[in-house]
User: What shape does this take?
Amino acid sequence: MLENVSACIIAKNEEKNLSRLLSSIKGKFKEIILVDTGSTDRTVEIAKEYGCKVFHRHWNGFADARNYAVQQASGEWIWHFDADTELEESEYLRFKTFFSLFNKDEYEGIQTVYKNVGVDGKVKGISTTVHIHKKADNIKWIGKVHERVVNINTYTILVPNFQVKVLHYGYSLANVQRDKAKRNLKLIFDELRSIKDKNSLDYIVNIFYAVQSYTALASIEERDKNLKRASKYIEKFYKFKDKIYKESIFLKHFFVYAASVYKSLNNLEKAMFFVEEGLKIDPNYPDILYNKAEIYEIKKDLEGAVLYYIEFLKSMDKVLNQNISVISDYAVYTKSTATEKLPNLIDNLNNKQKVIDDIMEIWKETRGLHIGLLLYSIEKNSNLKKAESILEKLSRIYNEDDYILSLKGLIYQEKGFADKASEFMEKALIINPLNPQANLFFAKVYEKEGKLIEAINFYKTYLETVKDVNIYQKVLNLVKSLKNS
Assistant: This one.
């Protein structure tokens, strides 16, 4: 147990999520403080079942609720959790080791990386914030929405070069994203109206959040209308860009949103302008690189598209291997870019072999997961022996990646080694119970053995992550056969 750390949660109507979080943190902290802001479901009851100290607070924005939670806590340090998150045991142990060693007098907070998980159990995005901080009078939360913790004397917070990862399930469903975006916009405009100094950092940051929320909303409803609203605040924020610290995540990701919005509005010239502006600040920022590749692809410039998709993969490998602080909405596309998009684009290049040779040199130098997957995907149709050698190296380096394990399972299946295939597919399912290749594999195995209930269950799990009309019809037929028997 972390004797001097209090876990703090603010929640409202979170009965669907809360048990998952509390199961993952129970017994790990000095206490668990839960501030309820008006639940009408079983949130409070569940919290008490897990031994939380429950307090109630009228809703006045996120910062107010977090500050109130801190006031109730007795720990010297506070770790804030959202109700729709989960702390993995390995990350808790890693943090515990670090926390026992680092200089607590020198720093004020610790960064948290949120791995945003989709319905398929895969990480769809990565965001970084400070959700762990010292309890002190000068450390406060500010902001009604997209709240942040700061030292009120310096308006920043000192953190060590360490990050702890937390799983986040809050953005896995479109309706949840829509509701949060609309809720956030209301809070953002309330805050903008209340800020008297229109040149203040608070005002500028809330303009950024307006861009972010309208961009998210455009992917769900009223696409063109919300894109145009986003573009209005993009132009407004850009005028303030020199007031933002150049290494700020806000500034870097602003250029991602700006490029994406103008690309979607089919204004490629303006989209490329914001890409180039963003790359001046950080030439390796993955989401900006992805936007540049997409713009080249739209313009039918295959060589440019291939070059920058490769740069995107290199950048994502660096982020994942070195725990670099980054917000990424495009992490979801990393594996599909490596295994589908890029191999197809490269196949249509006139200088195809030179590009493949260049990728091989990058792989030898970096041993990156996604560069390796790209090389495997290119070679598997022309040089299976070479492809298997690459996959073998990948599986030794990334032996906890369920996708790599399922690929090895498929190779053993193709070679007729059923037991070996099952072994790797089982390992993949242990790491990710929603792995589509493994679920489809076992569904077919059980169907062949006549175990229809088991087969149907695996097919259903497969359909949670893959829209496959043929498998959907197969499940209907199997259910019908089961009823008839």
